[in-house]
Design brief:
380 residues; two-stranded antiparallel ribbon; 68% helix; globular
Length: 380
C-alpha cells in the first residue's frame, strides 16, 4: 500500500503588536496633552497670555472629541464590517437624553417654578414623574442606562434586520427612517422629554456645580480619556479573530457563510458595540454643551457622522477621528464667517473625498509618503 502523505498544518500569521512604537508614542503624547497640558493652559496660565486655553476652546474641543467617538464607532461598522448606518445620531441622542434626565433631576427646586418636577412638566401641568423617570435621580443607574438604552434598541433592531439579511442601501434607508421616526416622537410634549425644547438649564452633576472652569476641565479630560480608551480597544478588537471575521464579512459575506460562520452574531455584536459607543459619546456631550433636544436625532446629523469617517479614511480607526476634527473645526469657523455656505462646503467636501480621495485623508497621506520613499529609493 502506498502511504498517503500528510500535509503539514498551515502556519497562521503571528499576531502583531497592538500599536507600533510611534503609535504608542502618539498615544502617550495625546494622553499628556489631554490630562496635563490642557488643564494647565486653561486653569493656571493667565487669561491675557498667548498660551492660555480659553473656556470656549475647551468646550469646542470637548464637543469634537465626543463626535470623534461617534466617528470611531461608525468606522467599526462601516469601515470594518461594510454596514453603512445613517441612524447613529439616534444612539448618540439616546445617551444624551439619559444623561439629560439625570441632570434635570439634579436641578431640584432651583428651577423657575421651584418644584421637584422639571420646569417643562410643571408648565404642562404634570402632577408626577412618568414611570420611565424612576431611576433618573441615581447616577449609577444613569451610567447603566447610558449603555442599556442605546444598546438594547440596537440589539432589537439589529437582530431583526440582520436576520432578514437586509443590507446595502436598504439597511441605510431603514436606519435613517428609524432615526426620523424617533425624532418625531421626541418632538411631542406628551412623551415627557421636553418636546422641541428638550432639556437645558443644567446646574449640577453629582451635587457639584456644572458651570465652573474646574468642572468643564474634568469633563474635558474624561472625554479625552474615553476617546483614547475606545481607540485602543478598537485597535485590539479589529486585530483579534473577531475583527478578522468582520473584515471577511465586509469583503465576501457569502464566502464566510460557506466556510461555516454565521454572520448574524458577528454583525449584531459590532452593531450593538457601535451603538453603545455613540450613547457614551452623547452622555459626555450633554453636560459640556448644556442642552439636548430632538434636533440631535435629525437625519442630517447621522449623515455627518458618515462624512467624518469618509473624510478621515475608513478602516483606519485614526482616520475617522481626524475627520471629525477636520470637519467640525471647519464647521466652527465657517458657520460664524459664512453660515449660509456651510452646507455647500460640506456637500462639496464629501463629493471631493468620494471622487478623488476614496481612502480619505489618511489614505492620501499614506500614498504621498509611499511616493516620497519611492523617489528617495530611486535616487539612492
Amino acid at each position: 500500500m502506498t502511504a498517503i502523505p500528510v500535509s503539514s498544518p498551515v502556519a497562521l500569521p503571528e499576531k502583531g503588536p497592538l500599536l507600533t512604537r510611534s503609535g504608542w508614542g502618539s498615544i502617550l503624547m495625546a494622553l499628556l496633552v489631554v490630562s496635563a497640558v490642557a488643564p494647565v493652559l486653561n486653569l493656571w496660565v493667565p487669561t491675557g497670555s498667548p498660551f492660555h486655553l480659553s473656556d470656549y476652546m475647551v468646550g469646542l474641543l470637548g464637543k469634537i472629541m465626543c463626535y470623534a467617538i461617534c466617528a470611531l464607532a461608525m468606522d467599526l461598522i462601516w469601515g470594518y464590517t461594510g454596514i453603512l448606518s445613517l441612524g447613529h445620531g439616534l444612539f448618540f441622542a439616546l445617551g444624551g437624553y439619559v444623561m439629560g434626565m439625570y441632570l434635570m433631576r439634579q436641578i431640584g427646586t432651583d428651577g423657575v417654578y421651584g418644584s421637584e418636577l422639571p420646569d417643562f412638566m410643571v408648565f404642562l401641568d404634570w402632577k408626577e414623574l412618568p414611570w420611565y423617570w424612576a431611576l433618573s435621580d441615581s447616577f449609577l443607574a444613569t451610567l447603566l442606562l447610558i449603555v442599556a438604552v442605546p444598546g438594547g434598541l440596537a440589539f432589537v433592531f439589529g437582530y431583526f434586520a440582520f436576520r432578514s439579511r437586509i443590507k446595502g442601501v436598504y439597511f441605510s434607508i431603514i436606519t435613517q427612517a428609524l432615526t426620523f421616526a424617533a425624532m418625531l416622537l421626541f418632538f411631542r410634549n406628551e412623551t415627557g422629554f421636553g418636546g422641541n425644547n428638550g432639556f437645558t438649564d443644567f446646574k449640577r452633576i453629582l451635587g457639584m456645580p456644572l458651570a465652573t472652569a474646574e468642572m468643564r476641565m474634568v469633563l474635558f479630560v474624561l472625554t479625552g480619556l474615553t476617546l483614547l480608551g475606545f481607540y485602543l480597544w478598537a485597535c485590539w478588537l479589529v486585530q483579534s479573530k473577531f475583527g478578522r471575521v468582520l473584515q471577511a464579512i465586509r469583503d465576501a459575506e457569502s464566502r464566510v457563510m460557506f466556510c461555516g460562520y454565521n454572520p448574524l452574531p458577528y454583525k449584531l455584536t459590532i452593531w450593538v458595540i457601535s451603538a453603545v459607543m455613540c450613547g457614551v459619546a452623547g452622555a459626555l456631550y450633554v453636560p459640556q454643551v448644556g442642552i439636548i433636544n430632538p434636533g440631535e436625532m435629525s437625519p442630517a446629523n447621522s449623515i455627518e457622522i458618515a462624512i467624518w469617517a469618509a473624510v478621515g479614511g475608513r478602516a483606519t480607526l485614526i482616520g475617522p477621528i481626524i475627520g471629525a476634527f477636520i470637519v467640525n473645526g471647519a464647521k466652527s469657523i465657517l458657520t460664524v464667517s459664512f453660515p449660509e455656505y456651510w452646507l455647500y462646503f460640506l456637500g462639496g467636501l464629501f463629493i471631493v473625498v468620494t471622487l478623488f480621495m476614496p481612502q480619505g485623508v489618511v489614505g492620501l497621506a499614506t500614498s504621498l509618503k509611499a511616493r516620497v520613499r519611492g523617489r528617495q529609493g530611486g535616487q539612492s
